Amino acid sequence: MERFLIEVDHPADRGACLKAIRLVLEMGSHWVTHADWGCFDGVHTGWLIVEAASRDEARMVLPPVERSAARIVQLARFDLAQIDELERHHPG
């Protein structure tokens, strides 16, 4: 399984903020109910990290209305022994 960061933005107005959070919480998925939100700091975005077999599978944990706008980022951790591998991934 791979790890993915899912990022979903919503408009800054009160109604859109409440709607986005309520939609996610009412979905009831364990992953989605553990999302972190930046709304109190003026960043109207939700983030969650999931383990999934693919980017598409990670996207499926979101409510259907949120899936197309979500940013899905595959996460990786590196140690010093992997520097050569990282350099090969970024040629030039």
Structure description:
- With 92 residues, the chain is α+β, with helices and mostly antiparallel strands.
- It is built from five helices and four strands.
- The protein has helices at residues 14-27, 30-33, 55-59, 64-67, 83-89, and strands at residues 2-9, 36-37, 45-52, 71-75.
- It is elongated, with a radius of gyration of 16 Å.
**pLDDT below 50 for ≥5 consecutive residues: which ranges?**
none
Which second-level CATH architecture applies? 2-Layer Sandwich
How many strands appear in the DSSP assignment? 4
Task: State the shape.
Answer: elongated
Helix percentage range = 25-40%
Largest sheet: number of strands, sense, barrel closure: 4 strands, antiparallel
Intertermini distance: 30 Å
Question: Structurally, how many domains make up the residues?
Answer: 1
What is the H/E order?
Answer: EHHEEHHEH
Compute the number of helices: 5
> Which strand order does the major sheet show?
2-3-1-4
Query: If you consult CATH, what is the topology?
Result: Alpha-Beta Plaits
Strand content: 25-35%
